[in-house]
Structures are given as structure tokens and as C-alpha cells.
Amino acid sequence: MIDNVVINGSQKIAERKIYDIIEKQLAQRRLGIFSQQNIFAFSKRQAKKEILKNFFVAELVIKKKLPRTIQISFNENTPVAVWAEGEEYYYINSDLTILSSVENLELNANNLIILKNALAESQIKTAGIIKKVGIEKKYLDICLSLKQKLAAAQIEIDNNCEINGLEAKVQVKANNGPKIYFSADVALDKQLEKLSSLLAAKITPDVLTKLEYIDLRFGDKIYYK
User: Fold this and answer.
1) For residue 97, what is the DSSP state?
2) What pTM was estimated for this model as a whole?
3) Is the sign of the CA dihedral 160, 163, 168, 171 positive or negative?
4) CA atoms within 13 A on the CB side of 44
């Protein structure tokens, strides 16, 4: 009878969630007859299918180690950002595939940028066992670039980058300062040049903290309040 489950490779995926999958399967019978608590009756294929349905991992291997152990090994895909919808958060990779849910944002040790869905409708699309965020990759690229490039302009922002795909709008928030609106359809560097010109000509650091927003989306014009 299986009395030990060993998990290798878990970093951001909570091991508890893998254990829950296996425990649920151990309570089932195979072919309606054989208890899967018996190591010989335990279905590695069923366990693998269920894990892949819930988590996007690579090189998943499940082994039976006689007499009583199931060993599960895998490699986690590396997240580049977090996707947020309402109160739900998910790690995503560079092609917007959802890797796993985020257990606790406070444990976001890599300080990943958080892309927040500004629309009421979910942007998560499912194809088979794979879930992806259904926005264009340019939104991810813009958000990944903004923090570094705004820091070069001496504007520090928080980790939230709000996405509105219907309006091609990207919004960030300066620390102790205004919201800043960018267009996903206009070259980011061009918009940053406008922002730098505004700051150099009219907006002192003290004034910047008092602004509500700066809007860079409309041609050569800049709107701020």
C-alpha cells in the first residue's frame, strides 16, 4: 500500500496541491475494482494527466518506488510576469501561457510585474489542457519595458500594469505620483520621449506628485491634470 509521495522540482507550485491530486486518486478504484492505494494498481497515466491539467510543467515523470513510494519529478517553467483578473493571480511565461496560480503575492520574490485585466470579461483562453492569456504579446513587452525605462527618466512605478485591450491602453502608476497612460499602438520610445520633454519643460518633481494623470496616447499632444 502506498504510504509515501515524494515530489521533486516544486518551486512556485505549492507541493500541497500536488499532494491533493494524488490523495484524491488514491481514494479511487481502478476499473471499478482495484484500490489505487495499491502501488501496482496506481495509474501513473491518470496522475500525469491530472497534474498537466492543473499545472504547466515540463519533463513530468512519475515513478513507482517499491515497496510503498510514488515519486513525482518535474521542471517548472520560468515565469516572466503575473496576470491578474479580479482577485485571482497567475504566473505566465513569455508566450502568455499560464503556468500556475499565485498562492501569495507577498511571496513574489522575483518582484515580477503584474499585468492587470482592466476589462470585466476574462481574457484567459483554454485550448486542451493549456491555458493562455488572450491578449497580444505587445502588451507584455510594453509592461516589461516600462519599469526600467521610466526609472531611467527618474520615475519609479509600482509593479502594476493595467491592460485594456479594447482601447489599446496600458496604464501604470508612479509612486506618489500620477497615473500614466500609454498606447499599445504607438511606439513606446516615442511616447517616452514626449514624457521626458514634458518633465524637462514644465513638470518639476514636486508638481509631478500632485498630478492625477498624464496621457501620452494622442499623437504629438500630451494631456495631463
Assistant:
1) B
2) 0.76
3) negative
4) 13
Query: Which tens digit of pLDDT belongs to each residue from 169-219?
Result: 999 999 889 999 999 999 999 999 999 999 888 888 888 889 999 999 999
**From edge to edge, which strands make up the β-sheet containing 57-65?**
4-8, 69-76, 57-65
Q: What is the reported pLDDT for 110?
A: 64
For residues 217 and 225, give the distance between their C-alpha atoms in angstroms, rounded to a whole number: 15
pLDDT tens for 41-57 read 999 999 999 998 888 88
Read off the C-alpha cell for 141: 513587452
Residue 78 β-bridge partners: none
Count CB neighbours of 211 within 10 A. Answer: 15
Strands (E), the chain: 4-8, 29-30, 34-35, 57-65, 69-76, 81-85, 88-92, 98-101, 114-117, 124-127, 130-133, 157-164, 169-174, 179-183, 213-215, 223-224
Q: In terms of Cα–Cα distance, which of 221, 220, 222 is closest to 211?
A: 222
